[in-house]
Amino acid sequence: MRFRGLVLHALLAAAAMAGGWARAQLANDGEWPMAARDYANTRYSPLDQITTANVRQLKVAFTFDTGVDRGQEAAPIVVGNTMYIVAPFPNTLYALDLTKPGAPMKWKFEPNPDARSQGVACCDLVNRGVAYADGRIFMNTLDGQSIAVDAASGKEIWRTKLGDIKKGETITMAPIVVKDKLLVGNSGGELGVRGWLVALDTRSGKEAWRAWSTGPDSEVLIGEDFKPFYAADRGKDLGKTTWPGEAWKIGGGNVWGWISYDPQADLIYYGTANPGPWNPEQRPGANKWTAGIFARRPSDGQARWFYQWSPHDLHDYDGVNENILLDLPIKGRQRKVLVHPDRNGYVYVMDRLSGQVLSAEPFVHITTSEGVDLSTGQLKYNPQKQPRTGQTIREICPVSPGGKDWQPSSWSPRTQLLYIPHQNLCQDTETYDVSYIAGTPYVGVDNKMYAGPGGNRGVFTAWDVAKGRKRWSIPERFPVWSGALATAGDVVFYGTMDGWFKAVDARNGNPLWQFKTGSGIIGQPVAYRGPDGKQYVAILAGVGGWAGAIVSGGLDPRDGTGAKGFVNAMKDLPSYTGKGGTLYVFALP
Amino acid sequence: MSSRCPEFRLVLAALAMGCSSAQAAQQAPELRVCADPANLPYSQRDESGFENRIARLVAGDLGMRLSWFWQEQTRGFVRKTMGAGQCDVFIGVPAGFDKVLRTRPYYRSSYVAVTRHGDPPFAGFAPERLHARRFGVQLIGNDLAASPPGYALARAGAVDNVTGFLVYGDGPAGQRMVDAVAGGGIDVALVWGPQAGWFAQRSAVPLDVVPVQAPEGLAMPFEFAIAMGVRPGDTRLRDRLDEVLVRRKADIDAILDAYAVPRVGGGGR
Q1: How far apart are the C-alpha atoms of A254 and A213, rounded to whole Å?
Q2: Between A and B, how many residue pairs show a Cβ–Cβ distance under 8 A?
Q3: Which class for B30: exposed (0-12), middle (13-18), buried (19 or more C-beta within 10 A)?
Q4: Of the residues A348, A369, A400, A572, which has the fewest C-beta atoms closer than 10 A?
Q5: CATH topology assigned to domain A406-589
Q6: Residue-range domains of chain B with CATH
Q7: Which of B74, B143, B223 is the best mutation test for A, with the most CBs of A within 10 A?
Q8: Binary contact (A390, B221; C-beta < 8 A)
């Protein structure tokens, strides 16, 4: 379909880009062909029918039940006259016909993943979305498969098993397609799963390359082209030598977040997750290439540069959050940058060609570190907050899920602001008597998370990237675990875990409209133009994920240590919302 | 999941009895036990583990019918089993495990060192003695969690020569570790006692199993007492189990002996 002209289109868009907005115009402006909408990961919709003046008239156009009441983290995607949504495990894929009243189901595809994958998934049974290219939908299943489905008929074209659930390997991320490659990464670091990013041939499903996140350079796909900016990332086989013994073989560094692509530089960008499954004291060293970011060439996977957000990660600060590719004036000079709000609490602005950190400014309350040394790139840890077995450490901020987790932010080229959904949480770690797993007793450590300064557990922040500071923010009762959507009508959308879908003014955050959904929202809002020419806004409601597991997993609120301490901060969520799994689509009358 | 009903339905189909009436006809009360279906030497779906045998002993003594609910003992085990109302008792939990109400402990074991017979025994955690040998430890995989000997090794600076064996995965970590010692891949496995004793007994290569002392100053025990666990508040069942555990102590010890469970003193609890 129209994606055949994708690369040319991208180049034209890049050439025509204005106002510092990097090549977002990959698709027809009314479509949403991948979870982040564009390769730059802006999640910006150029549609402007819905404005700050008329958004109050927004009404439900249609709904659709996904049939699963676990956490709904997926972005609906829209190509042509069809919407595609993927449900949490068992990952049923639905196609909805947008040309007909009520958008009835056109087909559904049931991939039948292995039920055992439910037992090893870390944080609910989520799936973050599918990707479209060349008449095919590409999806992942929780049990570690990638599948190509014919977009018109819903028939399977190929499937490739990439991971082994017996080893704890799962897939939850949304894949992307770059040229003829489907890019997919794995989850499961806590269970000793070694992270990778795989490129599959979109036509055959055959593996083209696999880049491991730990191990020798030959397996990490580090070669002559590798030119990291900082000295700490230069040297032979650092993916082995920055670990004790053979700990790298089960070292984590999974790739379960977002992938960006710069067609001009021909580089993909993605983060790697925390090191695992060792206690930090058992894995001295920087533990490369975990908790950092790779720039790679998509054709063969060869690494161009790497930077480590959190060397020797102590707090489970995965580095997988989104990387938004922008062209911006920074300190008086136009630069090709990458913007990354990290779990460790800083918004990084990097030169995306060289891997240099241009700035790293805190967007949340941080006690675990005292900034980033821009000459060495090193995060300056606060030794007082380093967790130590046998000791209670209080006021660790941000928490393990970070100042912000997977929930993706959105960039508006009109306001030049990045809209960041995030949490405001701190935690105490306490050693406790005894725990027991797989027949093995040990002394455990409990996390207890609680609200950070101000008492609100969530925040929706508009961040001035060029200036490196907050423009405005909206406190929310619960962590804002949904994605953000910026639109050309200067309306920004996001959802809350207690089930409000909200529209605010992009310029000042003034509330404009809200709608109460049947269950809390942790999904990714999208906008598209329907066959009738109208602008629609869509969101999946259905609380869950790590933050919402207390509801979707039915956890006991009396045990605050559930969901690795997240339950303590979410005890009241069940009194605000229940399980669900429903798509809501809104339009003006 | 109550698997009992369909089974009765099969047996009693000829009597044309419905499931519910079959159940009502069954007078003996039931002892519902939750256990891992593949975690020898503790439990196995074919009831060949020592916890299976202890459960049968206790149920028989109490005149109760024994039924099993199987669930892998990974994260969420308590929630998915007893927490979901699937069973009344766990046969083995650490005596300090506060998610359940515990009976009196009925054995006490220790982390042990497994070495090849004839090799020098494990000589403690003094740093100068550690670097010449290759160690294996169990890896827990939760935030900051380490097995006590693994933690002791790290504190003594022994990390390069330590291999981690995840407690999750293909087969029990204890088995993989004992196999690694037998095969020469590591020299010393520091394993929780019951797993070490059972797999070492079955090794083709003769192995030594010796309890390990925690190094001085380590705020982490190497010994744990093991009790049964019941639902919080279920003192009635707890009291009945306590009584059986005392009265049938000799029989239980015989089962533990048969499985070569290393036991240590420690207050005689």
Answers
A1: 7
A2: 158
A3: middle
A4: A572
A5: Lipocalin (2.40.128)
A6: 28-106+225-258 (3.40.190.10), 108-223 (3.40.190.10)
A7: B143
A8: no
